[in-house]
UniProtKB/TrEMBL annotation:
It comes from Koribacter versatilis (strain Ellin345). The keyword Iron applies. SUPFAM superfamilies: Radical SAM enzymes. This is Fe-S protein, radical SAM family. Its cofactor is [4Fe-4S] cluster.
Length: 350
């Protein structure tokens, strides 16, 4: 386990700051994937939805992303959407500047258009390409970002391939092995990651998997990781899928990540999924990765997670006392200042 990022995260949490930032950089996406949480009506809490938000382009978008980053100073930034490649021209300006700031950046895309060649050499940038299973299923769900197009568009890159496991995949024998066989062979795919579909509370769509299926799929991945080195999911992370956090308050990912939507004002809560996600059926790889770190024993029964939650309480108290010292009627000059001052502690994830 790498200690430096944990200490950096701990330092931020202790002072009431959130170490991870996620920006839904655009409301646009040329795809209509079944089960996409970003376009669910309750993704932004029900009063509005992603398609109805104002979003930005050109210099305006570049300026907003950089000033939000400079304000929050995250250790890690996720750029999601919609599909961020809709705004690839703006990203061509933004990504090198984020690299200069030393920030770790992940861009999550369907790769419906080519990933610019020069991004392959940017330090600390991870391009993550969402692939919905093997070609027949993927092409049905993700047209126009078909396998043929994705394979062309990731040429010369070193992407992480991310697949969200759905009910249809777990009910077909050897499906995940077939997926790993295919993508392990591809020289442009450096890592392979799986999430499990996370439904909203009460949802029972075809994407959902049962508790028994979850147990079986995790055992399958624990076995497969021995023979597929690109499957970048440590044992502790996979085991965390068997006991997801009970609630957003108990989720290290939700409490360490602030997600801002395309208008640069709306917060996505309680986590990146938005709406009312069913934590008991959470299959988010980011949440499980951080849970695994939280489960790590530091000293006797003392886990990193117990220290984190104690630190977060201290950080919350610190933030409340700092906010009490703010002038009563500050006059914000920019939208990013507005975001900071408009934070209602009850709505915050950290
Ligand atoms: S590519 Fe992503 S944002 Fe676009 S519809 Fe599919 S899942 Fe949603
Ligand atoms: S990421 Fe965290 S808050 Fe969101 S559904 Fe999963 S466990 Fe719940």
């Amino acid at each position: 386990m790498q200690i430096q990022p944990i200490l950096q995260t701990w330092g931020r949490v202790l002072t009431g700051r959130v170490p991870n930032l996620s920006i839904e950089i655009t409301r646009e996406c040329p795809l209509r994937c079944p089960g996409c949480y970003a376009y669910e009506d309750n993704h932004l809490g029900g009063d509005t939805n992603l398609r109805s938000l104002t979003d930005y382009k050109g210099d305006d978008l570049v300026r907003r992303v950089l000033s939000l980053v400079d304000e929050h100073k995250p250790l890690h930034l996720s750029i999601v959407g919609g599909d961020p490649l809709v705004r690839y021209r703006e990203l061509e300006i933004v990504l090198p500047q984020l690299a200069e700031r030393g920030i770790h950046v992940q861009v999550v895309t369907s790769a419906f258009r080519p990933i610019p060649t020069q991004w392959a050499t940017l330090p600390r940038l991870r391009m993550t390409v969402s692939i919905d299973g093997l070609q027949p299923e993927h092409d049905l769900r993700r047209k126009p970002a078909t396998y043929e197009r994705v394979l062309r568009n990731i040429e010369g890159q070193h992407v992480a391939v991310h697949c969200t496991i759905t009910g249809a995949m777990v009910r077909r024998a050897e499906y995940l092995r077939g997926f790993l066989d295919f993508w392990s062979e591809n020289p442009n795919a450096e890592k392979i990651w799986f999430s499990i579909f996370t439904p909203q509370i009460g949802a029972d769509s075809v994407e959902c998997i049962t508790a028994d299926e979850r147990t079986r799929v995790i055992q399958t991945l624990l076995d497969l990781r021995e023979s597929y080195p690109k499957l970048d999911m440590p044992e502790g992370m996979l085991k965390a899928f068997l006991a997801p956090p009970h609630s957003p308050e108990k989720c290290v990912f939700a409490r360490t990540t602030r997600t801002i939507s395309a208008d640069f004002k709306t917060h996505v809560e309680p986590c990146q999924l938005g709406g009312a996600p069913d934590c008991s059926r959470c299959g988010c790889i980011a949440s499980m990765g951080l849970s695994a770190i939280g489960n790590h024993k530091l000293l006797g029964p003392l886990t990193a997670g117990s220290i984190f939650f104690a630190s977060a309480s201290i950080g919350d108290a610190f933030k409340r006392s700092r906010n009490r010292k703010l002038p009563e009627h500050p006059s914000p000059k920019t939208d990013t200042e507005l975001i900071t001052i408009d934070q209602n502690p009850k709505r915050e994830v950290a």
